[in-house]
Amino acid sequence: MAEVAAARRTRITPEREAELYEAVLDLLREVGYDTLTMDAVAARTRSSKATLYRQWGGKAELVVKAIRHGKPGPVDAIDTGSLRGDLHALVMREDDCVMEQNSALMRGVAMAIHQNDDLRQAFREQLIEPETAEFQRVLQRAVARGEIRPDCPALDFLVHMLIGGLATRALIDDQPPTQAFLTSYIDAVVLPALGVPTT
């Protein structure tokens, strides 16, 4: 039975899957998580609702996988030889326009996470936990290179600091995050907290 289900799930080509994910992200930007329906996704993508449920199980799973698919790649794939270089390279993977779109999208999803247990669980399992593990590997490389003391208390808060910079830019400054803002924030806040030189 599990083999039959797995076989059914593999029928969607990677190209088709990418189209579906892009359509989901477009709908999220247009109507938000709460208003987004599987019917709307099916209509937008010319898919059957049954196919969507068979492939993804439900809206939360589909939305989180679409967000994950839209990310530019694993954080720990970046290895410039220094933590500062890694974090700056991470910021440079998305231009300011894409960063503004994604920031608005994530603000809308963040609101929905507080009210939807299934979305919160999928988000934690498929985005937060894997990305936190990726950042931990980046930090462990920096520790191994001698850039950060292994007992640095800020090691456990890198992801918190980065998300804080992204989230508060719109809240405090009424501006989207930009490459210039985030690289300055990394140099002024994140690296000093970790005891890493910024030059």
**Cα shape:** elongated
Total strand count, please? 0
The residue-averaged pLDDT reads: 90
- Provide the structure class: mainly alpha
Distance between the termini: 58 Å
- Compute the number of helices: 10
Report the uncertain regions. Answer: 1-10
Give the biggest beta sheet: none
Strand content: under 5%
Describe this structure in words.
It is a single chain. This protein is mainly alpha-helical and 199 residues long. The chain has helices at residues 2-9, 14-31, 38-45, 49-56, 59-69, 83-92, 96-113, 117-144, 158-173, 179-194. Helix 2 (14-31) packs across helix 3, helix 2 (14-31) crosses helix 5 (59-69) and helix 9 (158-173) packs across helix 10 (179-194). It is elongated. The chain starts with a helix and ends in a 5-residue tail after the last helix. The model is unreliable at 1-10 (pLDDT under 50).
Brief sketch in words of this structure:
With 199 residues, the chain is an all-alpha fold. It has helices at residues 2-9, 14-31, 38-45, 49-56, 59-69, 83-92, 96-113, 117-144, 158-173, 179-194. Helix 2 packs across helix 3.
Features:
single chain; 199 residues; mainly alpha; disordered N terminus; TetR_C; Tet_transcr_reg_TetR-rel_C_sf; TetR/AcrR family transcriptional regulator; transcription regulation
SSE layout and pairings?
Layout: H1 2-9, H2 14-31, H3 38-45, H4 49-56, H5 59-69, H6 83-92, H7 96-113, H8 117-144, H9 158-173, H10 179-194
Helix pairs in contact: 2-3, 2-5, 5-8, 6-10, 9-10
